[in-house]
Amino acid sequence: MAILSLLDRGCRRSPRSTRDARGALRRRTARRLGRARLQAGGWTPRALAALALTALSAAGAGCGSSGTSGTSIDPANAVPASAALYAGAVVRPEGALQTAARSAGQTLTHQADPYLRLLGALQTPGSGALDFKRDVAPWLGPRAGVFLSAGGSGGSEQAVSKLLTLVQQGLLGQSGGAFPFAAHSVEGAIVLDTRDTAKARSFVKALAGRAGAQTTSYRGISYQATTSGIAFAVVAHLAVIGTEPAVHAVIDTTSGGPALARAPSYSKLLAAAPSGALAHIYANPDALSGSPGAAARGSSSALSLLAGGRTANVSLVPSKTSIAVDADTLDSGAGAGGLLASSSQAAGAMGELPGESWLAVGLGDVGGTLGRDPGALQGIASLGSLLTGSGAEGGQPAGISVNGLLAGILQPLRELAGESAQARHDFTSWMGSAGLFASGTGLLELKGGIVIESKDPALSRAAVAKLGAKLRKSGGSVQSATIPGTDAAVAARLSGLPVVLYIADGKDVNGKTKFVIGIGEASIGAALNPSGSLSGAAAYGTASAALGGGHPSVIVDFPTLLGLLEGVGLSEDPTIAPFVPYLRSLTTLSGGGTSAGSGIERFRLVLGLQQTG
Question: pLDDT digits over 436-445, tens only?
């Protein structure tokens, strides 16, 4: 996988005759591949995130020259239909795509070679330093893919954590570690298109030799494998490096087995994907709910929380001024849900938030999602762990810390998402749509919280005291409070939070009953009686324009966020400091949902990039 991190350097053009010959080879290979249904294994948010970062960083390299030509075989044609997750990328883009990829990468990282940092983290054992022009450019084709299979041992949680750590180390320029694909670890492989099979074979053989691999064979195809289970092969003019079972799966697929590229859900989503995509990541919901073991507990996954039980494909579309991420999901028609499934509800909830908010997120049917999947909020904690590199639980350093804040804020949300029948009756049964907001530029004037619309005022009013009792039982200091305009309120001091959380239930200016968890008493007033709603604010119009029209349900202003972090000293927190340079490169985040037609729902996120000169 070190190969992918080098793809931001020069490329070479192959002769037209070679391109034509390999096009014929592609057509012959494609005819051998049959249709199949998808059968996916379980993977946690850490695996999803690690695979996403790997693929997008690799794809974003946008190497130097145009006119390259490989076999033009889409690696998905060689990936088994049983793959749990798949990331595909154009690793040698041409023309406008190449220009957009390089511009976006350089703007985001302020480096001439923005993706080279992955080199230190994604190395096969003994590979040493690799030089793109010398080792890779002579044979690499335009496409690459990475897949994780449904296989793996009971220790997959530890392996997935290692995979994420390696990618994070590479992105942040930290020291690297062991190759993530190994026996009794994460089953999967990287599959690279080639334009010179002989040179690719020589490279793979040399890489295998340095890893101490020995020659063996499967179904008449020779390859090299190490005692730890890492395999190196050239299969159907594709370079394949990964676990031995994954390499066997590629050989089976190219010998006529069912391929991911022909799976109905994958084909439908890829056909609807936006033009100009540099990379995409495909995930099947069955991988999160249909397998035994800890990794199969999809109820704890961020993907389950956001997309519900729906097949998803996420595309990355770069430009000079922005990076767009389109998440397409298939509407199962079975009420699969997900917080982002009901775009109209989410947009409406966000539009009612305070107009001065610099962070605002609208969520769809919160009660329905948590009612079907009570543990889904754990996905938020997993996302927090991804961003900070450690869990939100456990001991926290003294003073304000990112982990402490995360743990404190998530605590009442976890209580609301209790799995017992009583908890579902007391909390999720009355929940409708919800919104999260933050306003203010310093700790003293900071306002923020989560606002949940109530479908049963009596139950939501009673939930204030019940949630307070649960927080008190878990170690918090909770007492009754009186806040004008509310029917019930408590104040809670929780470990890790430097401010008091207020929990209240009352009617807003439109007469709707809202349940609010706010940072400080002023946040309750801002949520129930704002001076103006976000739907009428300039930020709302700007977000709508960035999305190409429609109603946004996510807004973030990064300069304000960064200013707040710096003002309270969190920009120097070791868990977030490495990300600060990237935050400086961003302007806004805008997100919203729409229909892409043919039963496909799309949620688009657009990251605005700072422009210089």
Answer: 999 998 777 8
